Amino acid sequence: MEQTFEQKIGELEEILKAFENKDLELDRSLELYEKGIRLIRECTKALEEAQKKVEEINARE
Amino acid sequence: MNQTSLKPVSVSQLNLYLKNLVQADPHLKTVCVEGEISNLTLHSSGHIYMTLKDDSSAIRAVMFRGYRASLKFIPKNGMKILVIGDVNVYDKTGTIQIYVTKMMQAGIGDVYMQFEELKARLQKEGLFSESHKKPLPKYPSRIGLITSPTGAALQDMKNVIRRRYPLVEYTVIPTTVQGQEAAADIVEAIRRADAMGFDVMILARGGGSLEDLYVFNDETVARTIYACETPIITGIGHEIDFTIADFVSDKRAPTPSAAAEIAIPSTEDVLMDLMNSEQKLNQKMQMMLTTFESKLKLASSRIESHSSVRISGTLSRLDVMKHRLESLVTVLLNDKGSKLKIDIEKLNASNPLELCRKGFSRVTKEDGSPLSRARDASKGDRLYITLPDGRIVSEVREIEEKDYGTDV
To answer: 3-state class of B98 per DSSP?
Structure first.
């Protein structure tokens, strides 16, 4: 199931927290980094699309 | 009493004196009086004149036009009311009267008491406790708006949502929001909304009179809000209005618009947060890489130093061994040097070539046995003299024996 926006942000926060762990392995950190950047991209895109949609609707009205 | 000592004063002077007296008394400022309306005159000028009475007494009262705006009911004779105002003397008639600034129905006073009583009771029961208040989600994806489908409150909330955070999906749960009968309606709407699994919901109503908002002071409404699984924000009336529903909800907003703003983040803020997160993530990853790089450097330098220590250790051990060996040899040489020299000389002395050089040679008889004494040879014997480059065959002519004092 597709994650909700809040779940994505939640995971992102978890990832940022995971980096605090001193025992984090390099491979794992790269994995987390990739995931984090992907989540940020997805969230940003979703927001921008929603904003665009509203602007379109407002323009029609 | 001397009558002539009495100096007459005018009526005006007396009334002015009385007026000053009354005005100077702090107890006669801002009094609250309860009574029944009689002799009511709603004057064309807008002023209201009446007599306020109880079973045994009466006093004149006036409310000037300017204060009528706050009136929430039309006064009628026989009505029990509560007035707030200053007591003063109307000097034209010498009448003491109450100059009313606020007038309310006595029943409303009861309602106020009921409100305070319910509030105190529910507070004691823990319905307003902070620990029961649910945290609001930061990024809700679905919100429920419990309000009148035709009210301004809904329009206000919709505007805020669209402007601020279009990512959220909202559902309107319609309910009536006015009148005592609305309580059951509101309770039902809250329950229904709670079952719909929203991330957060808003109970809202636009501004109105105290009576209009009174349904939000209903005990059942309060208990329904308390029992909700879903976080609930109230946005009822205006800033100044506090209802029981506001106390029991997870978050009270001063207006419906404010409730919507509290419920959702703004897109700009979220985008900013995301940008910050990205920056943070990059920093952390960079730090991670730096850490690993330095770890690697440390590890390799440790390996190097380990092995170099080992090598230099081995080298120095070898060195030591070499030194020991050398010194041993030196000692050995020094110690045995002379002996060795003698031996070498001895060896040289017995070297046959060396002996030959001195003139000695090996002499053998015909049978091959060495001849070592003159007396072993006889005249006429053949003797062989061996030299490094050949053999001389000779014949004994004469034997001359000589004693060298050596026992041969």
So the answer is: strand
Instruction: Point out the domain boundary residue: B53, B77, B110.
Output: B110
Check A29 against B285: CB less than 8 A apart: yes
What tokens were used for B268? 């700009």
Give yes or no for a contact between B217 and B189, defined as CB atoms under 8 angstroms apart.
Answer: no
Helices (H), A1-61: 5-18, 26-60
Please give the model's pTM, rounded to 2 decimal places.
0.53
**Selection from B153, B157, B136 nearest residue B199 by Cα:** B136
CA distance B198 to B230: 7
Rounded Cα distance, B145 and B138, in Å: 17
Q: Is the pLDDT of residue B32 over 90?
A: no
Please compute, for residue B111, the number of CA atoms within 13 A of its CA located in the half-sphere on the CB side: 18
Who contacts B252 (Cβ-Cβ below 8 Å, separation ≥6)?
B233, B234, B242, B246
What range defines the domain where residue B106 resides? Answer: 8-110
> Which of B158, B277, B278 best probes binding to A when mutated, by most A CB atoms within 10 angstroms?
B277
User: Same domain for B68 and B18?
Assistant: yes
**B81 with B37: CB under 8 angstroms?**
yes
Domain boundary, last residue among B246, B268, B290: B268
ipTM metric:
0.81
A51 touches chain B (CB under 8 A): yes
Mean pLDDT of B135-141: 90
Please name each of the domains of chain A with its CATH number.
5-60 (1.10.287)
